[in-house]
């Protein structure tokens, strides 16, 4: 659909809240009597009761879940740090906007509001709605992968992006800078693409490159951002070579925050201008609205008319009519507001600042975590924490199961388990073995973060008790979602015993 570059019908003031002092954010608040810490610039008005099971029941739950945190029932989880996908807290304005949704199959006013907002913030010409991020990845792969032996260079893969690219017969080639794969570093933009490697690939295999994918806020390697300078350089190289650039903007909110706070040239540039500049550097920008915009859904923003025509044919076939693409109109209204709120530093700073707090507290306890603090969540370095467990026994998966047992906290394995076996059965070992503890926006309080740090600390002191895992049921595709595993010894019972010795009757 063609985007008219006008303002969305509801005014910016309606969304952003015009208040005195707006423009300052929580990062700038200093404390008098204690060390600086993140201070929420919102208050909680709706709550959900939580349940912390006794440790014996937590052991039963993780056993029933096949030691896979994806298979835990949420009723048995205390703090759900699995993901921020569809779990960010929505704002009062988002909820209010949902009531204004125009419920029609075709030509919904809701769609035109969303389309106009996307055109306004990314400066892109066309918007095609889809039901979530992976649907966009499927459609992009289908449209752009057209030949044999094609490759898709990118900073780093995301699970579903790689699965779809492989499904259409192309190969992912990762060309992230070396620092990106080092858990400990002080490089502020570990998600950057190695542009020399990109030039070399263009020199040797230009005709095989289906497209170049840039993932803002690299999910699998610690939520590490990409700099604007790097995106500009990659875009320039690709434009000169006639290669399509695809930007995965799912984790863009965090990446915007890091461009603003870590990239000197952008510290005084409004978020709105940074976002628009990014939108101009890619031929296709897609996103999961479960992440960007704190709603549920997704979409593809396209500059070129010919590409839009190709996507347009597929949307009604796989997603839904062109004015909803599989999304509920209520979520689309919430997304329109959520995207506008992404331009507010108070909104986009909250998660990175909580993550930074968690990373510095854990580092002070000498617990190995990915540094510098990135977006999305705090990432524990399981390769180092459980250095006695070989990668073939899934240390990050074992750490996820162990942390759930000792705390009721659900994290997500981001290591070898999240990889896929080769067709010949060999298992590629992941570059990093991480346990990701996602901090969905505005969901957890600082005391809950402190409880998390406390239980991680206890587990770290008792890390030699943790053993490995082995598959009892291993799906061929995306095995981390629903594969089942078992401990390789009675280590979980020993962990429970030690917990009871140290904590007595405490949960
Ligand atoms: C970087 C990135 N791209 C794509 C996706 C896929 O989005 P969805 O979960 O909406 O399918 C995700 C989801 O976590 C993601 O983090």
Entry keywords:
507 residues; alpha/beta; Aspartate Aminotransferase, domain 1; five-stranded mixed β-sheet; binds pyridoxal-5'-phosphate
Give me the CATH fold name of the largest domain: Aspartate Aminotransferase, domain 2
Low-pLDDT runs of 5+ residues are 2-19
Structural class by helix and strand composition:
alpha/beta
Which small molecules are bound?
pyridoxal-5'-phosphate
Strand content: 5-15%
Tell me the name of the CATH class of the largest domain: Alpha Beta
Q: What is the number of independent domains?
A: 2
Q: How many distinct helices?
A: 18
Radius of gyration: 22 Å
CATH architecture of the largest domain: 3-Layer(aba) Sandwich
- Please tell me what the overall shape is: globular
Account of the 3D structure:
The protein has 2 domains: 188 residues, Aspartate Aminotransferase, domain 1 (Alpha-Beta Complex), CATH 3.90.1150; 254 residues, Aspartate Aminotransferase, domain 2 (3-Layer(aba) Sandwich). It is α/β, with parallel strands linked by helices. The strands form 5 sheets. A 5-stranded mixed sheet has the order 2-8-7-6-5, sandwiched between helices. A 3-stranded antiparallel sheet has the order 9-12-11. Strands 1-10 form a two-stranded parallel sheet. The N terminus is likely disordered. It is built from 18 helices and 14 strands.
């Amino acid at each position: 659909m063609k985007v008219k570059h006008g303002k969305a019908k509801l005014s910016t003031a309606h969304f952003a809240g015009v208040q005195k002092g707006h423009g300052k954010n929580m990062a700038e608040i200093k404390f008098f009597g204690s060390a600086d810490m993140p201070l929420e610039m919102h208050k909680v008005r709706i709550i959900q009761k939580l349940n912390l099971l006794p440790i014996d029941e937590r052991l039963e739950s993780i056993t029933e879940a096949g030691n896979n945190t994806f298979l835990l029932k949420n009723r048995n989880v205390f703090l759900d740090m699995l993901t921020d996908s569809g779990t960010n807290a929505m704002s009062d304005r988002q909820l209010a906007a949902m009531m204004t949704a125009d419920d029609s199959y075709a030509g919904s006013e809701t769609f035109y509001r969303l389309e106009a907002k996307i055109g306004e913030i990314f400066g892109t010409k066309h918007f095609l709605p889809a039901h979530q991020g992976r649907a966009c990845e499927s459609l992009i792969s289908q449209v752009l992968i057209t030949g044999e032996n094609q490759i898709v260079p990118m900073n780093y893969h995301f699970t579903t992006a790689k699965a779809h690219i492989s499904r259409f017969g192309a190969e992912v080639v990762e060309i992230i800078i070396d620092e990106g794969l080092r858990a400990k570093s002080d490089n502020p933009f570990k998600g950057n693409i190695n542009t020399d490697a990109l030039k070399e690939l263009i020199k040797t295999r230009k005709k095989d490159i289906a497209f170049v994918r840039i993932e803002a806020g690299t999910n699998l390697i610690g939520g590490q951002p990409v700099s604007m300078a790097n995106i500009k350089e990659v875009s320039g190289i690709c434009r000169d070579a006639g290669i399509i650039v695809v930007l995965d903007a799912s984790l863009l909110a965090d990446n915007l925050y890091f461009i603003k706070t870590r990239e000197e040239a952008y510290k005084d540039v409004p978020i709105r201008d940074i976002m628009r500049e990014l939108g101009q550097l890619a031929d296709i920008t897609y996103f999961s609205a479960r992440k960007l915009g704190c709603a549920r859904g997704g979409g593809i923003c396209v500059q070129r008319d010919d590409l839009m025509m190709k996507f347009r044919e597929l949307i009604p076939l796989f997603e839904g009519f062109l004015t909803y693409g599989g999304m509920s109109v209520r979520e689309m209204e919430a997304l329109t507001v959520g995207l506008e709120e992404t331009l507010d530093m108070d909104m986009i700073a909250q998660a990175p600042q909580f993550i930074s707090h968690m990373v510095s507290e854990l580092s002070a306890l000498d617990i190995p975590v990915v540094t510098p603090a990135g977006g999305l969540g705090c990432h524990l370095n399981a390769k180092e924490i459980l250095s006695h467990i070989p990668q073939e026994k899934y240390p990050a998966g074992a750490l996820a199961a162990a942390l759930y047992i000792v705390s009721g906290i659900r994290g997500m394995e981001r290591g070898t388990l999240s990889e896929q076996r080769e067709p010949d059965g060999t298992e590629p070992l992941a570059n990093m073995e991480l346990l990701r503890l996602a901090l969905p926006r505005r969901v957890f309080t600082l005391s809950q973060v402190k409880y998390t740090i406390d239980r991680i600390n206890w587990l770290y002191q008792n890390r030699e008790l943790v053993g490995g895992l082995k598959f009892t049921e291993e799906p061929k595709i995306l095995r981390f979602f629903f594969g089942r595993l078992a401990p390789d010894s009675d280590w979980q019972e020993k962990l429970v015993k030690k917990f009871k010795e140290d904590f007595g009757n405490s949960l």
